[in-house]
Amino acid sequence: MPIKQLPVELANQIAAGEVVERPASIVKELVENALDAKASELVIDIESGGAKRIRIRDNGVGIPRDELALALSRHATSKIADIDDLEAITSLGFRGEALASISSVSRLRLVSKPAEQSAAWQAWSEGKDMQVRIEPASHPDGTTVDIQDVFYNTPARRKFLRTDKTEFGHIDEVIKRIALSRWDIDITLNHNGKRVRYYPAVSEHDQLHWRRRLAKVCGSGFAQDALYFQQHAHDIHIEGWLAAPEQCRHQGDVQYSFVNGRMMKDKLINHAIRQAYDSFLTAERVPTFAIYLTVPADQVDVNVHPAKHEVRFHQQRQVHDFVLNTVKQLLLGQHQEDTNSASD
Ligand code: ADP
Ligand code: MG
């Protein structure tokens, strides 16, 4: 075959292969966009596990009419402008790919109204060259992304969708992670017209409501008993909750880590925590935690994986040992307290 330029839609579908694994990955991208747009309220409507519909409404800054087409095209972003910005990412998104990718494998409609614009507009793209169409719409300040029929035009991908219940379970988990990473956001999650989760916004220093949200996400046992801690050294801040070894769970469903507000499945952090717990845990229990790491943005590379759930720390060893030692000291202190009170 001679060399040919791929049609835009096909190129975007190929790119979608990296970020859009299932409905939950779409939800993650859209919610991250809403958070980057400084929304304080999110309403997420899901139908049939997300395969049929995913609709996310936010009250963020919105997208001006003349930027709607760009928002839907690939490699277009308002979050970085040059290579220096890439060295110190402070937003959740930066690749400028999500909307273009998602809209190439579903029916996507973007409706938005910035506060300073008098009316709302909606946009969607069509055809092999993904031409963007724009029409007037009605919408309050903010943005709604409405997605229907995920993978309708990529049957090979559609085949890999699991039951509605399983797919919704993945979405629920994504939203739990968001609920843990952003206490200040009011989040509603509906499935098939029924409200399934509601996480009211919590103000910054409100321990009672913190624990209440923690209970909703991690279970009331963890929220009641977990040890809260904070530690700071060499520009790294760590805080969060740890279960005492004898209160750790049997499954690994409460193992949450965040780096600079981004939800992570980071091997380095998980390894450090596992090692810290190691000598305290009996075989049937696993580390149970929600921890938050804050490092200077230029000390961590988030451009490692398209789905952005891994990072690379510049000072790997230092971060690892800091997490390890902090967690270990805390568990050790707890252990000694227990032994002392047992011998009283
Ligand atoms: P990225 O988030 O990497 O920039 P996306 O494809 O997810 O790329 O989004 C493209 C652009 O569209 C963003 O940079 C942003 O300017 C705009 N955008 C997307 N979603 C929203 C939203 N909910 N509110 C405001 N702007 C948005
Ligand atoms: Mg994005």
UniProtKB/TrEMBL annotation:
Domain of life where this protein originates: Bacteria
Keywords: DNA damage, DNA repair
Domain DNA mismatch repair protein S5: 214-332
UniProt KW DNA damage keyword: yes
Keyword DNA damage: yes
Family according to the record: Belongs to the DNA mismatch repair MutL/HexB family.
Role this protein plays: This protein is involved in the repair of mismatches in DNA. It is required for dam-dependent methyl-directed DNA mismatch repair. May act as a 'molecular matchmaker', a protein that promotes the formation of a stable complex between two or more DNA-binding proteins in an ATP-dependent manner without itself being part of a final effector complex.
Protein name from the UniProt record: DNA mismatch repair protein MutL
Organism: Idiomarina baltica OS145
Lineage: Bacteria, Pseudomonadati, Pseudomonadota, Gammaproteobacteria, Alteromonadales
Positions spanned in the full protein: 1 to 344 of 574
